[in-house]
Each structure stands twice: as C-alpha cells, then as structure tokens.
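Sequence only, no structure available. Ideas?
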Amino acid sequence: GAVDPALRLADMDEEGIDLAVLYGTASLGFWGLADPELAAAYCRAYNDWLADYCAADPARLKGTPALPLGSLDAALTEARRTVTELGFVSLTVPCCVGPRNLDDPASDALWRLAEELDVPVGVHAGGPRFAHRRFVDSYATLHALEFPFDIMFAAATLVCGGVLERFTKLRMLLLEAGAAWGPYLFERLDEHYEKRTHEMPHITKPPSEYLADGRLVISCESERHLPHALAGLGDHTVVLASDYPHWDAEFPNSVRNITDRSDLSEMQKAAVLGGNAARIYHWDRP
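Reply:
I predicted one. Tokens follow.
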C-alpha cells in the first residue's frame, strides 16, 4: 500500500479511513543533500510520483510535498507548484532546518506563503538529531526518545519564538510523536513565561493560550494517555494519524482503537477522528 494506491485504498477501507493525508518518510530528508540542485530534483521527482499516486482517487488521497529547504527560493517555488498545480493540501518541514530553528526569520517567507495558499504546515519529527550518536546500536531507544524530543523542540520554538504570534492565519500540525507530552510541555512553558516573561519577548500571552484558537494541532495514535492529552490541551487540538505503513502502525485497527474506547466521549472521538482535521485543512466536515 505504500507504493500501490489500489492496495492502500483497500487497506483504508479495512481500517475505516475515509481520507488520508500522505506525509513522506525517506523524502523528509531530501532537502539535506549536499548538492542543492540534486536535492531540488529529488523533491520534484518525489512530488510528481506522489501526485500520480494520489490520482488513483484524488478525493481520498491527499499529497504533501518534499521541499528543498536548503534553498529557500527553490523551496518556495516547489511549495507553490505542488499546491497550485499538483493539488497538495499541506506543506511539510522538519523540526529544524540544519542549524536554523523554525522561528528563524529566514523561514518567514515560507509561513507567509502557507497563509497565501491557505494550507497548513505539517511539522514532522526529525531535524535536530538530539541523540542519534548516543544510540548507534539501539534504534528502538533512539526512536522512542528522538521523535518526542524533536516535536517538543518544534512546539517551543514555534510558540515561544512568536511564529503563531506573527502569522495570525498560519495553521500547523505537530506530527508523529503522540500527544501525551503536550500538557506537560505547555504547563512548563507557561511557568517559565510567568516567571521569566522578559526572556520570551516574541509572545504576548502564556504559551498554552496559543492553543485556544485551534491553529496548532498534534497528531496522536490510540495511545493510553489520550484522555490526559485532551484534558490538558483541549478536545480541539488532537488529530488521529494512522502511521500506516510503518512498523509501529496499528493497522488494521487504528480507527477501531479509538472508536472502541470507553474512556473518550463520542464528541471527543468525532473531534479526533475527523472534526479537527477538517478544521485545520479548511475542509467541510466529512
């Protein structure tokens, strides 16, 4: 199903997934190739392939691009092409671009373009590489640590660095690290804002208040502490990601593992399974 859209659609039917937004895996690293022209060519080739893949059922399969972020001009050109010509529904970035954090003013042109194109930006785990040299022979431990480390880092830079403050129409998703870390991190950020406000000069209110308008959402799977995440972040902040076809996906039960739970209300299930995604992508509710 990762390479054959007909098989993917059949698997979506088995899971009960109406529509899938497809974020890449290997393609997330194309921007880091040392040759910028080669990086741009890889991204274009992948994006053209993904558009052909989604063409099998454009109503149910929605693409997101690989962007050659090593060159901002090339990234902006490819981002515009993929949305306006290929019909992609989101942009995609890692949690940092080399040494450049997401709140670096150098990225402002990309956030401005996302607003113009009226698409969200998916922030996928990867980029900072906080611990990879320390777990060379233990990928499982590395994977368990680095993905939430990356996403918490991105959340802090986007919110405390003032990205959502400056770009009032920008919508963002924090992807592939679960959601239960959210209440802890935002409580901690709020405490530091309260006691060291002068060291967060780019924002005008506590970090958790940037969740209130629903422009920042966090993807989850059917994690045990999902009720805790919803209670601490708000029912409007979390969306389901099946993680198909990765080794840690819950196929074929990613949807059932939400619908069959007794610790979530029907309204919470509806928000996580569809309502919040529809809002963040600016779609009519399915």
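The mean pLDDT is 96.
Hope that gets you unstuck.
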